[in-house]
């Protein structure tokens, strides 16, 4: 089938519903609606007296008022905010599996504000209990045992168990601080064995499969160049629109304990996820959605932007402190690219000298570093195949400078000891 031209109107470039049929998993196709939740929207029909759901009577709820104090993102002034009676009642009660409509609407507007994707242009939005919940559900909506998933590695280790549980075949695609190894990816696809099922998804980056764009750090960008556009933005100008499945999160910018993530995707995928929510945890918590809605409406999109810019600057300063101590203690003992977003350094330990290979950070980090009182993530867990790697992930989000210094001082000693040991072994 000829692809539509990029300059044709967007409506004619939106992939049709049938496009997604071969992508949806058996278990998703077998999911049926929660019969009570399916009837719930009818409660709002005019004149209806509902005897339907097991909603507890809010008169019995012990919480009678709720207030919080909100810092203005521009002036820093603090303002008390009280939830109204209706907001509190709504927050303490069950709500739709897709999320409360007003917050849904606000976040659809945010996607237009941040990514230029307008409502009604072939995508929808729903919430999960954090973006993890949504990634888990999308992975289950798409993958059957034996399906192939391409995963850009190193990857956020938290998603690896989600893919494993589907019994899909995971193929790693290389990546570095500039993104996916597109040359390697092209070679892999061009030499794909005849008869082997084609990959269904790639966890980040385009080709003829669905793209899972997991981007909780989007707003924590502090690089000098303009913020790189999201895949969600880029696909708007592609000949076909509807391959990007985007995961956002309020965890890193408002609160991780609120557990609010949101999914922007073709409606077929949104429907599959809502069905999953209906038949698992019913819905994400209403109360945190009401809180988030009140706060976001208080700020507006520009206020949110001002807030996330401050948050990004906060992590920028933390990064600089961390890197200063990296240079001081790990100079010559590790290699890294300076991160321009997020809250992690991904660095390679220079364990072996000469031609002994890069070595493995696992034992050093999991045992020796821990014995010396430093906890970091060994890079091997960021490779779905568990391959050996000299890389380590370290977070710079929380620690004050004196603790960063102490942690890196300890790590230096651990690396020096490991190097001495490797040298002695080689000589023996
Ligand atoms: C890349 C990535 N994706 C997803 C998540 C999960 O975030 P949430 O709190 O929205 O579930 C994290 C959290 O650390 C992450 O680093």
From TrEMBL:
Pfam families: Aminotran_1_2, Asp_aminotransf. Belongs to the class-I pyridoxal-phosphate-dependent aminotransferase family. SUPFAM superfamilies: PLP-dependent transferases. One of its GO terms (molecular function) is L-aspartate:2-oxoglutarate aminotransferase activity. Keywords: Aminotransferase, Pyridoxal phosphate, Transferase. InterPro entries: Aminotransferase_I/II_large, AspAT_Ic, Class-I_PLP-dep_aminotransf, PyrdxlP-dep_Trfase, PyrdxlP-dep_Trfase_major, PyrdxlP-dep_Trfase_small. Its cofactor is pyridoxal 5'-phosphate. This is Aminotransferase class I/classII large domain-containing protein. It comes from Pycnoporus cinnabarinus. One of its GO terms (biological process) is alpha-amino acid metabolic process. The keyword Transferase applies. Residues 91-204 form the Aminotransferase class I/classII large domain.
């Amino acid at each position: 089938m000829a692809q539509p031209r990029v300059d044709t109107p967007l409506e004619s470039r939106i992939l049709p519903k049938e496009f997604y049929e071969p992508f949806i998993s058996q278990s998703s196709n077998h999911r049926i609606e929660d019969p009570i939740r399916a009837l719930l929207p009818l409660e709002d029909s005019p004149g209806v007296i509902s005897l339907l759901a097991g909603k507890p009577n809010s008169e019995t709820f012990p919480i009678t008022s709720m207030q919080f104090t909100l810092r203005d993102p521009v002036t820093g002034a603090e303002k008390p905010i009280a939830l109204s009676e209706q907001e509190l009642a709504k927050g303490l009660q069950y709500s739709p599996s897709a999320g409360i409509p007003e917050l849904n609407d606000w976040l659809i507007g945010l996607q237009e504000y941040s990514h230029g994707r307008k409502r009604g242009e072939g995508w929808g939005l729903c919430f999960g209990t954090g973006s993890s919940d949504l990634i888990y559900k999308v992975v289950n909506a798409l993958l059957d045992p034996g399906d192939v998933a391409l995963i850009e590695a190193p990857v956020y280790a938290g998603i690896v168990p989600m893919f494993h549980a589907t019994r899909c075949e995971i193929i790693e695609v290389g990546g570095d601080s500039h993104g996916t190894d597109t040359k390697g990816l092209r070679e892999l696809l061009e030499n794909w064995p005849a008869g082997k099922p084609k990959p269904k998804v790639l966890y980040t980056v385009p080709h003829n499969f669905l793209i899972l764009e997991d981007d909780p750090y989007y707003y924590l960008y502090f690089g000098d160049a303009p913020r790189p556009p999201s895949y969600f933005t880029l696909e708007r100008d592609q000949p076909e629109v509807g391959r990007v499945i985007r995961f956002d999160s309020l965890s890193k910018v408002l609160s991780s304990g609120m557990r609010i993530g949101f999914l922007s995707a073709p409606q077929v995928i949104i429907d599959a996820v809502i069905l999953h929510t209906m038949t698992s945890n019913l819905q994400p918590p209403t109360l945190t959605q009401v809180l988030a809605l009140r706060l976001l409406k208080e700020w507006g999109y520009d206020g949110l932007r001002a807030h996330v810019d401050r948050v990004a600057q906060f992590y920028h300063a933390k990064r600089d402190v961390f890197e200063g101590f990296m240079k001081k203690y790990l100079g010559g003992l590790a290699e890294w690219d300076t991160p321009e977003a997020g809250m992690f350094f991904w660095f390679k330990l220079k364990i072996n000298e000469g031609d002994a290979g890069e070595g493995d950070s696992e034992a050093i980090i999991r045992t020796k570093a821990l014995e010396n009182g430093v906890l970091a993530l060994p890079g091997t867990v960021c490779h779905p195949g568990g391959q050996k790697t000299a890389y380590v992930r370290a977070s710079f989000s929380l620690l004050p400078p004196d603790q960063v210094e102490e942690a890196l001082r300890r790590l230096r000693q651990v690396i020096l000891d490991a190097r001495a040991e490797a040298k002695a072994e080689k000589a023996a």
